[in-house]
Every structure is written in C-alpha cells, then in structure tokens.
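Hi F.,

I've been meaning to write this up properly since the lab meeting, where we talked about keeping a consistent format for the predictions we share between groups. The idea is simple: the sequence comes first, exactly as it goes in, then the structure tokens exactly as they come out, then a line or two of notes. No screenshots and no reformatting. I'm using this chain as the first example so we have something concrete to point to.
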Amino acid sequence: MKKLLYAIAVSATIFTGCSKDEDEETPTKVPVVGEISGDITANRTLAFGNYTLKGIVKIQSGVTLTIEAGSTFTADKSDGDDGLVVLNGGKLIANGTADNPIVLTEKSKVGGSWNGIIMYGDAPIVNSSTAPAPQTSTSEDGLSLTYGGSNPTHNGGSLKYVRVEYAGRVITTNSKEQNGFSFYSVGSGTVLENLVSYKGNDDGFEFYGGTVSAKNLISYGNADDSFDWQDGWRGQDNTNWFAYQTGVGNYGMEIEAKGVNNSFWPVVKNITLKRAAGTTTEAQSEIQLDAFQFKAQGNGDYSNIVIDGYGSQTTPTAFNGGAVQIRDLVTYNDQVLTGKIKLTNVKVTNTPILFINGVSTVNVTAASFGTNWTTSTTATGASLTKGKWATVDGVDLLANL
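Output, unedited:
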C-alpha cells in the first residue's frame, strides 16, 4: 500500500521587528512546503503550507485528514492523474476562513486538468423504482467504486471556505467524468459551507444521491452544468447558491432522479443563476441553455430565485434557451402536475422565454405549475460575503452577483 508523503519541513515564525516603544509586532507564520501522494492510512494534520498534490490521494476508512486554513495544493496534469478522494468512512476536515481559504488548483490553469474533490458515503440513494432499499450504484469518476447505503447521517467531515480550480476532468463523455466537487451518497452529518468551483471542464458541483446539504456555494465559469444531481439527492437545508456561466456552459441546474417518482425532494433557498452574454452550450449537438432543467422525475422546492441572461443562442448554432425546461412527459405528469416541482418568488430578467418544452405532446406554461410557480420583482437570490475565498487572480467572483 502506498504511504503518504509529506513535508519534513515544520512551520516557523519570524518577527518583523519592534516599534519605537519596543512592543513586539505580530509574528508572521511561514508556510511549509511539501507533497502529498498515495493512501492516507493514519490520522494526520497538514500544517499551513504550499503542497504539491501528486496522484490520486485517498483518505481511507477510519482515517481523518485535517488541513490547516490558508493551505494551497497544486496538481500538475503533466505528471498523471491527480485528485483528492475521501472514501466511505474517511473524513476530511478542511476548514479555511474567508480571508484564509484552502485552495486546490492546477499548474497549467486549464479546466479539466485534474479530478477535484471526490467524497463517498453510505447515505441512501434511489436509482430504481423496483429494487429494494438500500440501493447502490457504481461511481462514474473512473474509480468505479460502489456508493449508496442506509446511513442518512453519514459524516465525511467538514469543508469550509474551500476553493477548487480547473478541475472537472472528462475521461469518457457520459461514462467517466469528474467535477469540481463530487459527492457520492454523502450524508447529513457532513458540513459543506462556502465552497467555490472555478472554471472546471464539467459540473461545478454534483450530488449522487445522499442527504447532505450545502450552504454558500459559488459555481463560476464551469463548462458543463453549474449544479447537477441524480440518484434521488434529498438535501433539505441548502441556501445561497450562485452560478455565473461565462464563455461555455450548459444548465444552471440539471435536476434528475434516475426515472424514480420520489416522495421526497431537495430544498434550496436563495439562488442566483446568471449567464453572461455570448455564452454558448458546450456541445452543439445538444441544447443545454436553460437556468433549470428537470428530467427523469427530477423535482424539488426552490425559492427566492434570480434568473438572468438565459436567452436563446444564435451562434454557432441557433437554439432556444429559457428559464425552465421540462424534458420529458413523465416528469411533467408526475412532478409538475402533482406539485413536486416548486419554483416560487422568482425574478426573471434578460430571459425572454420562460418555459422550454422538451415534451412534444403538451405545452408547459405557468398554469401547469399552478401556485407552485410565482414571480416577483423583489426576489434577492443568493447573499454571499466577499473575501479572498471568492477572489481568483485578483478577480472578485461576486462582482456579478
């Protein structure tokens, strides 16, 4: 079994001198320099520092890796496949602060250069209408690991003020892909707060079932969907989600449930989805231009929403885009008409078409939703606090919020 490699260096302090009255100034903490690779098989704390992330680093079951605030990890796609994986039973404690975030990036600064953060749990998933619980599935991240279970309170650790840059590696389209953050059946005992997925080549955040909730998320410039989920994800305490799509991007939110007509759904409050002018869909063979897309029995309760800039595309291929797309008839019948898709207090600007019909036999309109679709001119969307956690190379990611 591979061992964790880490810096021999230790953190140090230096003093910058004394003032005229001989009072000592606050010491400056010097970051260590090191490398991590291989399997993490014993509890370890990585001191504040600048680390090279080399290979697929796996936190094993029963093991906790703690990372001090302000640390930076840099992958290099030229030396192979890189990623940070929390296996079921392992824990990652990565608690940065607004001005000292934990940053995981890649040397070339090209989207899709590494695998991002992947976390596994054993919280419930649903991907079949006939199979008994607990159901399981196989991950699509290239690791082909089993996820799913019957532990809704699974705890994979705590991620606060963590930024992932240039991840979202696509191995084989639609079968082996990674995202900025990938959460496989992660449970409600896990803390996810103030996370940024920046300029990845796939989804910003993807939930594969599970019960975990997430607060204060930024998905910025990711080439596929800003937020995506499947397998009956049912997080109930989600708030302050902001997506800014620029250059290339697909759906603001892609929502599906593997064709299972669930009696539960996720709840997300305070959402801002914005698409910059000139942003095009990733593949011209597909039409993925909408703020919300519901398919395969996807549902949910969403409120206080701002949608801006989801207009039709004229080049390189003319496609219609809008605020909400209902992809298929079963989703329309089982989710829209029964009130399991709720979009309330919605402010829509620069988005001429409200509803995109993926259903050829019906016409989806506001009336289809009844009281579960309401618009407002005063919706505020996400509320997020600026700081270094949301700044990349001097660019304030919240400038367009």
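Notes:
The first strand starts at residue 12 and ends at 14.
The radius of gyration is 22 Å.

If this format works for you, I'll send the rest the same way.

G.
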